[in-house]
Amino acid sequence: MKKTPVITIEDCLEHLLGYHAKVEDLPYDLHEDNAKVIRSVARQVYKGKALTEKQFHMCNKIMKDYYITEFHKNGIDITEAIECTREPYRKVDRSFWIKLVKQKDIVSNSTDEKRLAIRFPFNRKMIDSIDRLKRVAPESYAYHEHTHFFEPCERTITRVVEIANQVNAEWDISAEVMQVYNDCLVYEKERANHIPGVYNLEVRNIPQRTKEFLYSEFGDVTKDNVHLLYDRRLRYGLHHFDNKESLTKHLSPLADGVANRKGKYVEIDATKWTSAQVVDSLVQLNRFPLMVVITKEVSAIDQLKQWHDLFKCVIAKEKMSCVFRLDTQNHSEFNQYVKDQRLNNRVTPETEIVYVLETKYPNTLSKAGWSPIASLGVSHSQRYNSTKVSLAVEDMDLSIFYSSQPSIINKYGKLGTGIDSI
After folding, report:
1. Which of 49, 83, 117 is the last residue of a domain?
2. Span 254-285, pLDDT tens digits
3. Using CA atoms, how far apart are residues 26 and 121, in angstroms rounded to an integer?
4. Per the structure, how many domains does the chain have?
5. 278-306 pLDDT per residue, tens
6. Fewer CB in a 10 Å sphere around the end CB: N or C, the chain?
7. CA distance 285 to 401
8. In what side-by-side order are the strands of the sheet with 290-294?
9. 351, 362, 291, 353: which is closest to 325 by C-alpha?
């Protein structure tokens, strides 16, 4: 093995790990009790990082207890070397602080935007805190040398300060951050005065014009109709409901599942639920006006019959309309069915169901003042072949995709997509 001067404890570490020799020439075997820490510290010093005083005393003891004899066997006396360091001790910044900063002031060539920064020295006890910090806002998270950066929104500031409060340390939290945190605590205590929602069967914290509209739609909020508002919470921006867990328990299982969706898209598994159950859930939730999209995945006549044979039992025939026809040569049965079932009604604002083709969204619907609040289609995709149809669907707070084939999102994971599967 190539001989190198062993003058300091850093030399001992590098020698032990073979940074100055071929691995096959090394006569040393690291002890399992300390191999991991020796490799870690040796890697640091080889890259030019000085030892802290704590690291020095730890390595000094390990060398005395495990390796001084091994070095002697190879003709190297490290008795004096392990008492010397190559460089002065590295001072560790053990500060704990939270403040709003320009990230570029801490990280060169970084953003000039203001960021929420929390800084603390890393140790094993802090691992859980670090993981919690990353989950606060993963899309805006950044890290640099013990400092964690986040977008400085109120929710994130609150969570970061709460996490810091769980760590026993002398935190230096800026007055600006504490002001936001304290304001959020007050806001949370007085949420009934700020957050739009239904409190004790009373709609609060929304514009008067919206209150008047909701009254015209639902009348007074009662125990018998509050579930309809809860189902439309995304539509009207209502974020609070008393005892929301019990609001939909009187509904059918499918209607309950639809009402408790997290986003506006719902995939309903046709192998678990019948089309009759789908229609029943829409009736229970009074999800009309409804746009029924006839897709290319199943024959048009089969889809129209599937839904119309059910809806005609609960919706007056004059309140349903099919606004498209197919070429007579290949789809004469479809066109005849529309005629026989009197689905050629003129669309008005009072029309409750309109059947549209997925490849075309008629401009006449908006001109007629017809505005659907939900859509239904036999599809396993969240987009239709017409941009206008897809845009119309995206504007609704409930779009149901009924299929026995799971979508790619449902099959391979839908985290963060806002799509519910029932």
Report:
1. 83
2. 999 999 999 999 999 999 999 999 999 999 99
3. 35
4. 4
5. 999 999 999 999 999 998 878 999 999 99
6. N
7. 17
8. 320-322, 353-357, 290-294, 374-377, 399-403, 265-269, 419-421
9. 362
